[in-house]
Recover the amino acids of this structure.
């Protein structure tokens, strides 16, 4: 038998340091996070804000967050599920919806800080790169883009949310290299292509292609669009109306949905000692009555035999 040297001894396990919980779960990149939240010592307790964008299967979450010793603090938040209030009821996770969510958050946080009139941003989205210019009185609200664990590929939806926030009037350090429409060969941003994505042109093109090639798939895939009378020709007008509605009233509204009267239980309610005791007595009485009934039946059978 070959002798194998033990590599991990008691000393190794005594000194083993467990990683942070969110690192073990694969949720947080702490190397990136510490670079985003580190604040200069001469700025004392000044919060350093992050523009955080996360995507789920059915929603987009955009938040303005600052880190503190007790935990992260959310200054403002916007969600794609709020967009039906502004007229967008379908396609809540695409590039155009990400732009709307970023725009909504930007206008909301500026209104909260009373900067909305001073910094209107880029009112009409042209697809060109835009950076807010400082005014004479107050500086623009500055935040750093936090993308989390996603791959920052060119045309990723997170940059749609970034573009919406920039056009909304936020000051976010960025480069145009990752916006949809940036050419790998000529190293330039095609503003028309980017504008096409902002107003849902890529969805309209797919709708036209699918309607011609596979009508049955088009009917099932875009059933919600068809139900609401949205066709490839009026998608751009729809998004223009949504952008205008967001700028008109970006404030958050509480849900009008009433809380449930009774909370649904998925496990059995824990009984008290008295309830358990009463239940046991009930079961014993039931067993005794069953046993007595069986004895009576046997006596009757014996009498019949005689």
């Amino acid at each position: 038998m070959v002798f194998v040297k033990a590599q991990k001894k008691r000393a190794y396990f005594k000194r083993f340091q467990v990683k942070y919980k969110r690192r073990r779960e694969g949720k947080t990149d702490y190397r990136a996070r510490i670079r985003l939240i580190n604040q200069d010592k001469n700025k004392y307790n000044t919060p350093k804000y992050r523009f955080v964008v996360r995507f789920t299967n059915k929603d987009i979450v955009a938040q303005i967050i600052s880190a503190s010793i007790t935990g992260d603090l959310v200054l403002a938040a916007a969600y794609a599920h709020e967009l039906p209030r502004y007229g967008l009821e379908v396609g809540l996770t695409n590039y155009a919806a990400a732009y709307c969510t970023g725009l909504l958050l930007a206008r909301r946080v500026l209104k909260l800080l009373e900067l909305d009139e001073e910094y209107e941003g880029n009112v009409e989205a042209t697809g060109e790169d835009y950076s807010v210019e400082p005014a004479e009185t107050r500086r623009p609200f500055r935040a750093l883009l936090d993308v989390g664990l996603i791959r920052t590929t060119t045309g990723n939806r997170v940059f749609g949310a970034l573009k919406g926030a920039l056009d909304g009037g936020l000051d976010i350090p960025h480069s145009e290299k990752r916006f949809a429409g940036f050419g790998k060969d000529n190293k330039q941003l095609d503003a028309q292509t980017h504008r096409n994505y902002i107003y849902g042109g890529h969805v309209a093109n797919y709708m036209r292609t699918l309607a011609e090639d596979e009508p049955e798939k088009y009917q099932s895939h875009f059933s919600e669009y068809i139900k609401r009378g949205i066709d490839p020709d009026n998608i751009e007008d729809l998004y223009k109306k949504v952008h205008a509605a967001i700028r008109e009233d970006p404030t958050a509204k509480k849900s009008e949905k009433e809380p449930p009267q009774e909370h649904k239980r998925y496990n059995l309610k824990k009984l008290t000692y008295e309830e358990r005791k009463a239940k046991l007595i009930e079961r014993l009485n039931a067993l005794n009555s069953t046993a007595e009934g069986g004895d009576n039946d046997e006596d009757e059978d014996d009498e019949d035999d005689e």
